[in-house]
Amino acid sequence: MSEFALSRAKRPADTSQRDRPPVLSAVLAGVLIVAAIVSAVIFARTADPADDQLAADVVVLQARGPNLPDAGDARRARGLPLPDFARLGWRAAGRRVDRVAGRTVLTVYQDHLSGQIAFSVLSGQPLLPPQDATPVRRSGILLHRLPSIDRTALTWRRRGRTVVMSAAGVSQGELVELAVQFTPAAER
Question: What is the SS3 assignment for 60?
Answer without folding.
Answer: helix
